[in-house]
């Protein structure tokens, strides 16, 4: 560090220039939708349908270093943005799968994006391997993404070198060049803690070359795929702050990386707080007077289930509906409709007015766990409310839902009434029982096409690198153990040599020729 004399006019000029550049950037085709979305929204409804950047270009400029840095992630993000919008216009979708291995990533010929899955990182990259509870170190996914991105750049360079060392005539006889630079989509989970933790994570993802990341509304440690305990989500406000922190970090970096707003309400059983009235319609309360849930201590999911049965838990609206006549229910909902957001206390007041003083027992405080979480009732409307509120802060939306077609259709159609050009994503669970959920073979065959028609332009099967590779490895392993090198040559070597696994020339993947080229260039020294 050294001291320098500051010329105040020059300092102001440079700053205002930067502010102007940011404002112009925010008017660009990729950025302007973040600003524009607000115009779809009637002002009074802004609480429900969200707000865009809550800060100005000048605020952002003052947080930037004077050293302007441009990130390759932006190039990849713009490429992804065009790809996904093309799919949206055509009613088609990008189909990709979870990938954390650079060798395999380089062979993905049928995909135009790569997904770095947190679950796969938990199973094979983290130091402590285990079930995906989003509890691995926060920089695990950025590190995995960075390795893949660097490998993409390497393959792109070796391909160029290989082509450019040949004459035009020779290149004309070679098959197509490959696009190794597939935009990377990465799992940012819940942002790993405070706003600054989320900002650091986003910074690392951008530096790693990531084109889009998904950020969800689970609480820290709130992910559950274990005993059926159900996820815990944070309040709508905390979720928006997370997304806002991510957007701010991208703005500070001047990065185009897309934010995929993921909402995990569908599998939620708890919410951390009742502070945000937007969450109130979905908070459950006891409708009979029983001992508080917290008095059970750290209860197993079976005991919580049993308590919920005894306490006859319901949402407040369901409770009113059980205590009112048809006309009263209509009047109650009519009065609710006049408010964009209505807290539980306000609902109680309206119910009192409609039911003419008839007592309705509803205790949502007694339905809290011993660590203070509230019971929560997910629904498509809850997912819609939250996802719409989040939309202006992100570029795409992923409502993580079970693959129930009616629910998917309702969510996406309702959402598109507010944001007609929205990009959507979805993930396939590796074990979803399509046949027992009533889908025919024909339905399953066309499933991805049906989702694409709803605007779900990015679809991922994160589990392939676990389920698919386990299956393939197991089969190969038994065969090789029994048949040895003869089986290897028959099943792997010969077919692999025939299909030219590297795309355009055999045995080129490791790029011996580019290493030779370095040597040749330095030979004169
Ligand atoms: C997509 C996901 O975030 C992942 O880490 O791959 C997981 C996948 C899974 O565990 O089924 C998720 O959807 O939460």
Automatic annotation (TrEMBL):
Single GO term (MF): isocitrate lyase activity
Enzymatic reactions: (2S,3R)-3-hydroxybutane-1,2,3-tricarboxylate = pyruvate + succinate
User: Which coenzymes or cofactors are required?
Assistant: Mg(2+)
Per the record's keyword annotation, is Magnesium included, yes or no? yes
InterPro entries noted in UniProt: Isocitrate_lyase, Pyrv/PenolPyrv_kinase-like_dom, Pyrv_kinase-like_dom_sf
> Binding residues for Mg(2+), per the UniProt record?
187
Instruction: Explain how, and how many, cofactor molecules are bound.
Output: Can also use Mn(2+) ion.
* Top-rank taxon: Eukaryota
Give the matching SUPFAM superfamilies: Phosphoenolpyruvate/pyruvate domain (SSF51621)
Keyword Metal-binding annotated:
yes
Q: Which UniProt keywords apply?
A: Lyase, Magnesium, Metal-binding
Q: Where in the sequence is the signal peptide annotated? A: none
Question: What's an example Gene Ontology biological process for this entry?
Answer: carboxylic acid metabolic process
* NCBIfam families on file: isocit_lyase
Family, as annotated: Belongs to the isocitrate lyase/PEP mutase superfamily. Isocitrate lyase family.
Relate the assembly described in the record. Homotetramer.
State the PANTHER family in the record: BIFUNCTIONAL GLYOXYLATE CYCLE PROTEIN, ISOCITRATE LYASE/MALATE SYNTHASE
Its name, as the record gives it, is Isocitrate lyase
């Amino acid at each position: 560090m050294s001291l320098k004399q500051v010329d105040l006019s020059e300092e102001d000029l440079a700053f205002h220039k930067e502010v102007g550049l940011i404002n112009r950037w925010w008017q660009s085709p990729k950025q302007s939708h973040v600003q524009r979305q607000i115009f779809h929204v009637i002002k009074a409804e802004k609480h429900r349908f969200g707000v865009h950047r809550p800060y100005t270009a000048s605020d952002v400029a003052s947080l930037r270093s004077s050293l302007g840095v441009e990130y390759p992630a932006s190039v990849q993000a713009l490429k992804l943005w065009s790809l996904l919008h093309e799919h949206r216009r055509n009613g088609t979708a990008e189909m990709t799968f979870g990938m954390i291995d650079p060798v395999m990533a380089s062979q993905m010929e049928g995909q135009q994006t790569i997904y770095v899955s947190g679950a796969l990182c938990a199973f094979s990259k983290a130091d402590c391997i285990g079930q995906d509870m989003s509890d691995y170190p926060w920089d695990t996914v950025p590190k995995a993404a960075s390795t893949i991105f660097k490998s993409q750049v390497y393959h792109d360079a070796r391909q160029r070198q290989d082509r450019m060392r040949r004459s035009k005539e020779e290149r004309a006889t070679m098959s197509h060049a490959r696009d190794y630079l597939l935009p990377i989509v990465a799992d940012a989970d819940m942002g790993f803690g405070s706003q600054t933790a989320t900002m650091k994570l986003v910074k690392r993802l951008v530096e790693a070359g990531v084109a889009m990341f998904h950020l969800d509304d689970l609480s820290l440690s709130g992910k559950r795929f274990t005993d059926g305990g159900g996820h815990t989500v944070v309040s709508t406000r905390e979720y928006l702050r997370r997304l806002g922190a991510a957007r701010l970090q991208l703005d500070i970096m001047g990065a185009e990386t897309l934010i995929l707003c993921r909402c995990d309400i569908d599998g939620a059983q708890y919410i951390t707080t009742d502070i945000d009235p937007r969450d109130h319609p979905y908070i459950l309360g006891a409708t009979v007077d029983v001992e508080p849930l917290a008095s059970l201590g750290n209860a197993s999911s079976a005991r919580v289930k049993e308590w919920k049965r005894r306490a006859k838990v319901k949402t407040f609206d369901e409770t009113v509906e059980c205590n009112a006549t048809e006309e009263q229910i209509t009047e109650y909902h009519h009065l609710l409709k006049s408010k964009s957001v209505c807290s539980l206390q306000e609902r109680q007041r309206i119910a009192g007015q409609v039911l003419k003083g008839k007592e309705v027992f509803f205790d949502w405080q007694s339905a809290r766990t011993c660590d203070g979480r509230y019971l929560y009732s997910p629904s498509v409307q809850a997912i819609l409310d939250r996802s719409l509120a989040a939309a202006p802060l992100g570029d795409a939306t992923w409502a993580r839902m079970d693959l129930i077609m009616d629910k998917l259709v309702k969510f996406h159609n309702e959402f598109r009434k507010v944001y007609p050009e929205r990009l959507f994503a979805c993930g396939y669970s590796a074990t979803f029982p399509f046949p027992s959920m009533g889908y025919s073979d024909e339905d399953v065959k066309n499933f991805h096409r049906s989702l694409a028609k709803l605007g779900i332009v990015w679809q991922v099967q994160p589990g392939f690198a676990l389920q698919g590779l386990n299956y393939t490895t197991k089969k190969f392993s038994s065969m090789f153990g029994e048949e040895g090198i003869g089986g290897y040559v028959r099943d792997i070597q010969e077919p692999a040599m025939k299909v030219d696994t590297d795309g355009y020339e055999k045995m080129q993947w490791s790029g011996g020729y580019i290493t030779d080229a370095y040597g040749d260039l330095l030979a004169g020294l």
